[in-house]
Amino acid sequence: MAAVTLDKVRKVYPNGHVALKEASFEIADGELLVLVGPSGCGKTTLLRMIAGLESISGGTMRIGDRVVNDVAPKDRDIAMVFQNYALYPHMTVRENLGFGLRLRGVDKAEVDKRVAAASDMLGLDERLDHRPAALSGGQRQRVALGRALVRDPSVFLLDEPLSNLDAKLRLSTRVEIARIHRRVGATMVYVTHDQIEAMTLGQRIVVLNGGVIQQLDTPMNLYNKPANLFVAGFLGSPAMNLFHGTLRRDDGLRLVMADGSITLGVDAPALAAYIDKPLIVGLRPEDLLTTADHPGITERLRAHVEVVEPVGNEVFLNMRHADEELVSRVPPHSSIQPGTDVGLGFHAGRLHFFDPETTSRID
Ligand code: ATP
Q1: What domain range is 314 assigned to?
Q2: Which of 66, 189, 192, 318 could covalently link to 307 via disulfide, CB atoms 3.0 to 4.6 Å apart?
Q3: What ipTM was reported for this prediction?
Q4: Nearest atom in ligand 1 to 15's CA
């Protein structure tokens, strides 16, 4: 097992495109770290640089104590699982699993032992003598995982391994990957653009945008203390509500918006610098409470309910307050109807504040 350390690692493609500006962080030995961000943010590039499939334009990359900038992929002791798991169609599952080992000259007894262990861990025992064509998509993806597992590498690199699976299979395979990680205790780097996958799998998550690391933290810290507006908007579905206005102080702090104002009910010291200046206030949909469903809560604004979306265990209220679109998650038994006005409140401690100019969190 090994840690992976990046020190000011950069990637500039030959056409001049800067895919990764300057990344410095460490993936701890045995950690499952997720790289997440929108399409084109540079996550695959970063993973391929760890694998050695993409050259490093600047900085230093280490696996364990070894600088690997110029080390060939096959000498890095890594295994990669891709989105398009190319299994050999003419080989059985057993042969597919053992192929890489045989190629490396591992003796047959050892190959059999490792294939049996991987097959056991992945529940493929019944399928060992089948060809890939006779497997379901989920089973094929498990074989692809198994091919990485038998190698027993220091570091596993997974690039959107679930994106070809249907929703139900994605969920069960996701749990499978978490289980494998716990059992083998290997360092894993997992790339996805899916925030749910990132939140559920990652011990820590790197949020990337435009080749720049936006934040690196545990899932709950990212959710509860997003470092900037990008992270606040990227994680969480429906996305965080944002109120744009000017901060005023009279009796207490108020956010004055184009139409109306909200009494904030807090006086965070960091906000002193924003009095009479533009400010963005954020509130997660689960923290924007209707007075109808929470009788004890003080009404701080009213909004018009446009669309009510039941999703089973809860209901999304899509509302409008002047120019701002708002979403609230309410209990499934809520009787709020579209076309009505509702009173809304919140617990002041749940507010997030952002600087409109720098987009950074204020606290
Ligand atoms: P996706 O989720 O769509 O796979 P990503 O976050 O993995 O996206 P990358 O594939 O790492 O993104 O690409 C990052 C940026 O670098 C993109 O803007 C992409 O167009 C660009 N890029 C990727 N490969 C090359 C290349 N060989 N030459 C020039 N630019 C490239």
Answers
A1: 241-362
A2: 318
A3: 0.95
A4: 29
Which of 285, 242, 281 has the alpha carbon at shortest distance from 265? Answer: 281
CB of 345 sitting under 6 A from ligand 1: no
Pair 249, 312: CB distance under 8 Å: no
CATH at residue 303? 2.40.50.140
Inside any domain, residue 281: yes
* Rounded distance from Cα 220 to ligand 1 centre (Å): 28
Structure tokens at 8: 């000011």
Any domain includes 67: yes
Are residue 148 and residue 268 in the same domain, yes or no?
no
Ligand 1 atom closest to the Cα of residue 41 is 6
Work out the pLDDT band at 78, boundaries 50, 70, 90: very high
Residue minimizing CA distance to atom 22 of ligand 1:
19
Q: How far is the CA of 10 from the centre of ligand 1 (A)?
A: 14
Q: Are residues 145 and 249 in the same domain?
A: no
Our answer on whether the CB atom of 192 is closer than 6 Å to any ligand 1 atom is: no
3-state secondary structure of 266: coil
Residue 138 has pLDDT above 90, yes or no: no
> In sequence order, what DSSP letters do the residues of 230-245 get, joined into one string?
HHHHHSSSSPPEEEEE
Go through the chain and tell me how many residues it has. 363
Residue nearest to atom 27 of ligand 1 (CA): 13
Q: What is the pLDDT of residue 167?
A: 83
Q: Is the CB of 20 under 6 A from ligand 1?
A: no
Nearest alpha carbon, ligand 1 atom 19: 40
pTM to 2 decimal places: 0.91
Distance CA 88, CA 127 (A): 15
Residues 322 and 177 in one domain: no
pLDDT tens sequence across 245-256: 999 998 889 999
CA of 296 to the centre of ligand 1 (A): 50
The protein residue with its alpha carbon nearest to ligand 1, atom 17, reads 40
**Taking residues 34-38, what's their average pLDDT?**
96
Round to whole Å and give the CA distance between 290 and 152: 53
Domain-ending residue, one of 231, 249, 267: 231
- CATH of residue 176's domain is 3.40.50.300
